Amino acid sequence: MEKLILLPVFVQVLLTSVVMILMGRRRIRAAKNKEISIAAFKTMNLTGANEQVIATSRNFDNQFQMPMLYLFSVLFTLQLGLADTAYVALGAAFVFLRVAHTFIHIGTNNVRLRFNVFLLGCAVLWAIWLRIMWQVCLA
Question: What is the Cα Rg of the chain in Å?
């Protein structure tokens, strides 16, 4: 089970890498099109950049927020010997929702749908942490 719990982690790392590459490509294109100046990258002032550049940059930042709490939960689960099918399923659900959130954010950017997917992902993450807490502190 210890190996299976890492599969969603690998997908999360791949997602973050893909978003990073897409962000770079969109930033370079915006600079070539004179939407933003090269100097803007000194302070990451993306004023004047198109919505795609800004949304992709924000999404890349998002990959280092809630997903970090997920990654820590995997480390704790492995360290404490708690890895089981439920953690694999919860992790897969969380990462699936992160992928969906990313597609929405850097695609149509439907705010209501994006927010609902984000909240659902948070609920899954809270379930993971509550389960860890239950097994460690209360069981």
Answer: 18
